[in-house]
Amino acid sequence: MSRKPSKDSGGIFDIDDKDRQIAELQAKMTDEAFWQNPSAANHVVRNLKALKNISESWHKLERRLKETSELFHISGDEGEDFLVHLDVDLNALKEELDRLEFLTLFSGEYDANNAIVSINAGAGGTESCDWVSMLLRMYTRWAQGHGFEVTVTDILPGEEAGTKNVTVIVRGAYAYGYLRPEVGVHRLVRISPFDANKRRHTSFASVDVIPEFEGDVEVDIRPEDLRIDVYRAGGKGGQHVNTTDSAVRITHLPTGTVAQCQNERSQHQNKQVALGILKSRLYALKRREQDEKMSREHQEKRKIEWGSQIRSYVLHPYNLVKDHRTDYETGDANGVLDGKLDPFIEIYLRDMKTRRD
Prior knowledge:
- The chain is of the alpha+beta class.
- It has helices at about 15-30, 40-75, 80-105, 125-145, 175-180, 240, 265-290, 290-295, 335, 340-355, and strands at about 115-120, 150-155, 165-170, 185-190, 200-210, 225-230, 245-250, 255-260, 310-315, 320-325, 330.
- Mean pLDDT is about 85; it is low at about 1-10 and about 235-240.
């Protein structure tokens, strides 16, 4: 059985601190002006939900452990049936403890936030564009399996097939904490469906993940530093989306940071979403410059080509997915592409925690 986390060990299992934070947030929600800022209010509600999930799970586990211990001490010689029942209870406790122990890996300042995920095609032409579409499906299936919401805010189709680049927002508790290990270049090896000679091709795509910042964040965005372009949205979305200049692209001129959105049906809605993404990207950029830890996670922008990949997905001449940072691998390539990413994420997070400790 995993080592029992200590209540006074700090981090996510500092339950007294979590209970104090819950009380503070609940008190804040009683303010008459609380809902006047919906974005900030929703941020508070999500934080409260995440904190209560941890606190309530911990207190429930403590009660169950105490009840099981008391039952064991008063049981006496109850026979084999009782031992089987006790074993079932202990296994259930272990599974819950393992789940809570896994949450200790989400110790980053922004791990509880939603995630903004961008996928971009690299070397490989049409092959890489198709690879971007495959990765989008993989992350969407993974997110659905966790009960997360996925919203495509911007997508640029490839010239012949697939997708050149796409940006999505993944909303759910600890979405950023889960997805931050996916940052880097992903490599695909397979027999090309676009090659009449059925030759093997290698494709590359890059994945970037930043936390979505909501509420009041310290980002100074002057209107004169922004260039706002509107254009006709492409791809799926219906007749209204495709025949009006509703898509919005916002460029922050001092940094060259760009955010765009074409998912919503009105130009105003697209502008608000794009501004939110831009704000998150600028805040993340600021934090990367100031915070040594975040800076290490994003210390270099590697070329999207051979030799820079963090993970390889091989579909020919054999099936294998290997993470080059942890050396974890599996032969269930189709399962991974269908969203079974948790082992890769967990092993990476545990490896990083071991290095920090």
